[in-house]
Every structure is written in structure tokens, then in C-alpha cells.
Amino acid sequence: MTLDRLPLLASGKVRDIYDLDDRLLLVASDRVSTYDVVHPNTIPGKGAVLTGVSAFWFDKTAHIVPNHVVSYTDGVPDEARGRGVVVRKLQMLPIEAIVRGHITGSGWKDYQATGKVSGVELPAGLLESQELPVPIFTPSTKAELGLHDEAIDFARAAELLNDVAPDGDGDALATKVREAAIALYKFGHEHARSRGVILADTKFEFGLDPETGQLILGDEALTPDSSRYWPADEFEVGTTPPSFDKQYVRDWAVASGWDKTPPAPEIPAEVVKGTQERYAEAYERITGESLSSWLERTAPAR
């Protein structure tokens, strides 16, 4: 079995989704996007990092909320090993579950303007990157490819969930999503700190089991693409700390003068190399092993 023989259901900014009848095959590519636009060249090894980091977290957090993973080897074509995972089919929810433990990024901009983030009022006088008293749930919409997600408050999230929630109770489902997302963030934050890394914020995607209605964690988990990780020894309140995610590419994109509309420019070789190194270091810091160990475990039998 090869990828070109499987029905391609969707191709997103990063992942390709293939139909396996009663299952799906998700393959993380090496594509990279900034400001919701995909760049023409790739970051080699990025797909393996995303899949390997997700595998680590899915395993570690299954006691908090079940996830969609079936196998990283069985049913995964050889050319996708290390980047692919067979998963359960879910009814995916129409919101992204974002949790912020530090005030940074777009949340920092919103706080400066209104004192709130997604309707959540925060204490006055916070500094950029400061840790919040408690993590906050700041959901967003899911935009189509090339468009931007929209930050929403809890009430709007509940409204969007009404159509998919069991018994039409979007408020109850939104509450479950918020509780699960915050519990996952807290677990990830504690582990990351033990590895010398700060998990500033992250995004989860959830779905429902079509038969039971159970809430299931899908997509990816606590990866450098869905999360903002900072080295703890370089963290300083009032600054924008260096990060292990694609912020390195974003910073270059801003400095390049690109207006953030398609088409995205090609990324220079030195920026590709620097980003590649940051992704690999993120994998090693978080999991405690080298990326090559993950690739060896998922490699085809010889």
C-alpha cells in the first residue's frame, strides 16, 4: 500500500488526510505556514517532529481525556512512517480550544487594547509574557485554508457547539471542552517545566465519538506548531522570549516585508536550517530522546 493509492480526503496547511474506510490516516508533511499561508519550500523533518511529539503527549495524557490514536505503524504506508498515524473517525468540533498560561502573542495585543482576552477579564498591570494567575480558555473559530481564525468568547463557542452537542446543549459541551483543555495544558506545563521548557500556550482540537458522544482529543497534541514553547533559562517577563516553534519563521516573514497575503515567499536556506534545528531540539527537550529514536521505532521492518 502506498499513499498514492489511498483516497485523499483533505490536504491542509500541514496535514494530509486519507480515507481507510472505518479509519483515517493523518500524515504530517514538512510544509510550514505563517499567518495561515503555506510557504513554497519545506522544513525537512518537521512532519516527524509533529507526529512524534503528538505521540508522546497522546500517550501521557490518555488518563485525562481519550484520544483518536489507533497505530503509528499498522496501516501506515512505508513512505509515511514516522509522519503518519491511523486514527479513529470523529465528529470534529467547529472550534479550536486554546489555553493560555502566559500573556503573549495575539492575547497580549488584545489585553493591551481591552484588558481582556476572548471575554476573559485579566488583572491590570500584567507585563508581556507574564504567567497568568490561572490558565484561561480562549477559543477560536476554525477558518478555511488561507483565512484567519477568529477569537471568540465562551458564549459564542457554546453557540457554535449547539448543533453538534448531545441533546443540543452547547453550553455543557463547551464546559467539557474547557475543562479538558485546561487539564491537558496544566499537565503539559508541569512536564515541560521539568524538562527546562515553558509551555506558554497551546491549541487543541476535539471531536465526538459518533456512536457514544464521548469527547475525544484529535488532530495533534502540544506540538511546536500548536503550542508556544520557551526555554526556561532564557525566559524574562516583559520580553518576547525565543521559542521552539515556527516563531523563527514568523519573525523572518515580518522582517521580509511580506504583506501576509498569498502567495507566501520562499524561506531562505539559513532560516530553514534554524527552524529545523529548533523543531528537533523541541522534540528532544520534551520527550527526553532523540528524533532518530522515534524514526527507528516507526521505521518499516527490514
Describe the fold and architecture.
This protein has a domain at 91-246: 2-Layer Sandwich (D-amino Acid Aminotransferase, Chain A, domain 1). The strands form 4 sheets. Strands 8, 9, 12, 13, 14, 15 and 16 form a 7-stranded antiparallel β-sheet that branches. The chain has a 5-stranded antiparallel β-sheet with strand order 1-2-3-7-6. Helix 1 runs parallel beside helix 6 (269-287) and helix 3 (154-161) packs across helix 4. The chain is of the alpha+beta class and 302 residues long. Helices cover 31% and strands 24% of the residues. The protein has helices at 46-61, 105-114, 154-161, 170-194, 247-255, 269-287, 291-298, and strands at residues 8-11, 15-20, 23-28, 33-34, 37-38, 69-71, 84-88, 91-92, 95-102, 116-117, 120-121, 131-137, 140-141, 197-208, 215-218, 227-231. The chain starts with 7 loop residues before the first strand and ends with a helix.
Low-confidence stretches: none
Shape: globular
Q: What can be said about the biggest beta sheet?
A: 7 strands, antiparallel
The CATH superfamily of the domain at 91-246 is: ATP-grasp fold, B domain
Structural class: alpha+beta
CATH topology of the domain at 91-246: D-amino Acid Aminotransferase, Chain A, domain 1
Tally of extended strands? 16
Taken in chain order, the helices and strands follow as EEEEEHEEEEHEEEEHHEEEHHH
Keywords: ATP-binding, Ligase, Nucleotide-binding, Purine biosynthesis
Catalytic activity: 5-amino-1-(5-phospho-D-ribosyl)imidazole-4-carboxylate + L-aspartate + ATP = (2S)-2-[5-amino-1-(5-phospho-beta-D-ribosyl)imidazole-4-carboxamido]succinate + ADP + phosphate + 2 H(+)
Pathway: Purine metabolism; IMP biosynthesis via de novo pathway; 5-amino-1-(5-phospho-D-ribosyl)imidazole-4-carboxamide from 5-amino-1-(5-phospho-D-ribosyl)imidazole-4-carboxylate: step 1/2
GO molecular function, one term: ATP binding
